[in-house]
Design a protein that fits this description.
This protein is α+β, with helices and mostly antiparallel strands. Strand 7 and strand 8 form a beta hairpin. The N terminus and C terminus are likely disordered. It folds into three domains: 43 residues; 38 residues; 106 residues, Umud Fragment, subunit A (Ribbon).
Length: 246
């Protein structure tokens, strides 16, 4: 009887040991998995959507890529605005009826690096007597020509021996010029090899080359050519005098 009891006790003790060992193994397994998860997070490994691992190196590479895109975009924008094209806003009515106060224009800043400005181009240029102040006007006289206003109209002497000839193809001026608006052109202005005579389309309300403080505009003063009106949307497109096509 005693031997049997001893055997039963031994068997029960062994079973308990097995159970205890199983619990310990289970606890150890849970603990190991927990530490593995912690090590995974500390090492910078993160699961991606597709189940792959994303390392810290790949993360910083992604951030660097975005930074490079931002820097490149900013650089391209700067180069475009500085050397190629820029937006400008019309202030005033001196170019009426072609342009109105508040019109938003795109200015081509690169074309004149390769070709000379032409008669009737609408250009922006630096006003020499005010810092960061630009004017927008239309080219009327070209280098080497002489410009005179008489009888309310513009005359051009191409210095080819034919004298002054009325500028009959000027469809942009909106009125006969008043005598008090002739300015320095009343007696004629001869342009140098890099000078242009500019006027606003609103001929009786424009501060332009007829005024002594503006005078002939040098090529180096010209910032660019107005090529497109982008605002208001109702007037989007090429620059045209109101009611006229060209």
């Amino acid at each position: 009887m005693s031997a049997l009891s001893y055997s039963e006790i031994t068997l029960e003790t062994a079973e308990l040991n097995i159970v205890d060992n199983g619990q310990e193994d289970l606890q150890e397994g849970v603990t190991e998995n927990l530490f593995e998860d912690v090590d995974l997070e500390r090492s910078g490994l993160y699961p991606d959507d597709d189940g792959s691992e994303w390392t810290a190196k790949e993360f910083f590479k992604e951030v660097l890529t975005y930074l490079l895109i931002i820097i490149l975009s900013a650089s391209v924008s700067y180069l475009l605005v500085t050397y190629v094209v820029q937006r400008t806003v019309v202030d005033g009515t001196s170019m009426s009826s072609t342009l109105s106060n508040g019109d938003n224009l795109l200015i081509d800043k690169i074309s004149y690096k390769f070709v000379k400005p032409k008669r009737y181009d609408v250009v922006t240029f630096d006003y020499l007597y005010a810092e960061d102040d630009s004017y927008i006007k239309r080219i009327i006289g070209l280098p080497g020509e002489s410009v005179q206003i008489r009888g309310g109209y513009v005359y051009i002497d191409h210095n080819d021996g034919n004298g002054y000839v009325q500028l009959t193809d000027d469809i942009y001026g909106n009125a006969v010029i008043e005598p008090r608006r002739y300015g320095i052109a009343a007696s004629g202005v001869t342009l140098g090899e890099d000078e242009y005579f500019v006027m606003g389309d609103n001929r009786n309300n424009s501060h332009d080359s007829r005024k002594e403080d503006v005078g002939p505009v040098k090529l180096e003063q010209i910032e660019g050519k107005a090529i497109l009106r982008i605002w208001p949307l109702s007037s989007f497109g090429k620059l045209k005098p109101q009611g006229k096509d060209y």
